[in-house]
Design brief:
By secondary structure, the chain is α/β, with parallel strands linked by helices. The protein contains 8 helices and 7 strands; from the N terminus they run αβααβββαβααββαα. The structure holds uracil (URA) and iron/sulfur cluster. Keywords: 4Fe-4S, DNA damage, DNA repair, Hydrolase, Iron, Iron-sulfur, Metal-binding. This is Type-4 uracil-DNA glycosylase.
């Protein structure tokens, strides 16, 4: 089975993890991506935000949530009273998956499958073990399935505080929609307000 496990160092904190992730060959997604996009933020962050996988901009820049979805997320966090600079931000899958009709044509995001999410899980587990956040904000269905299993339904649990064992540790989680879903929504303003009110639940759980 695909797995990142043999590539994950057992010690050395975030710098060692970030360095080792650049050489991960745990699943085929590293082949077509430009580079790994590891999590960003401080070891002492109180909140960890988990997205799906890097997008086009993230793949080019090597940093999570720097494209349009990231801009929207930062604004929503600030509106909810969470300082984006104080959060640790990462993804369930660390390499960009896409389809491309021809070279030099636009790269279109493709959702990672269960095998790829499972393969990449050891990186997320290692990030959780090092950062030990007080709260995990789960951004959308892929992150939810990666952390909470395939029966996860974002519409059923968004904006609530869940207590679950994740990779052997008791965690508190607040699921919400993915910021890309807000960008795609027919009623963007309502979708944005929904995201902010879920993040306000997270802000209250942190205070
Ligand atoms: N969407 C994600 O899920 N993660 C990113 O880093 C960017 C867009
Ligand atoms: Fe490794 Fe994850 Fe990249 Fe697959 S997606 S190669 S498991 S870092």
């Amino acid at each position: 089975a695909y797995t990142a496990e043999p590539f994950v160092p057992g010690r050395g904190g975030l710098p060692a993890l970030r360095k080792a992730a650049a050489g991960c060959r745990g699943c085929p997604l590293h082949r077509d991506a430009t580079q790994v996009v590891f999590g960003a933020g401080n070891t002492d962050a109180r909140v960890m935000l988990v997205g799906e996988q890097p997008g086009d901009q993230e793949d080019r820049q090597g940093k999570p949530f720097v494209g349009p979805a990231g801009k929207l997320l930062d604004r929503a966090l600030a509106d909810a009273g969470i300082d984006p600079g104080e959060a640790y931000v990462t993804n369930a899958v660390k390499h960009f998956k896409f389809t491309q009709a021809e070279p030099r044509k636009r790269r279109i995001h493709k959702a990672p499958n269960l095998r790829e999410m499972t393969a990449c899980g050891p990186w997320l587990a290692a990030e959780l073990a090092v950062v030990e956040p007080e709260l995990i904000v789960v951004l959308g269905a892929t992150a939810g399935k990666a952390l909470l299993g395939s029966s996860f339904r974002v519409t059923q649990v968004r904006g609530t505080v869940l207590e679950e064992e994740i990779h052997g540790r008791p965690e508190r989680l607040v699921p919400t929609v993915h910021p890309s879903a807000v960008l795609r929504s027919d009623d963007r303003e309502a979708a944005y307000q929904g995201l902010v009110s879920d993040l306000e639940v997270a802000a209250r759980a942190l205070s």
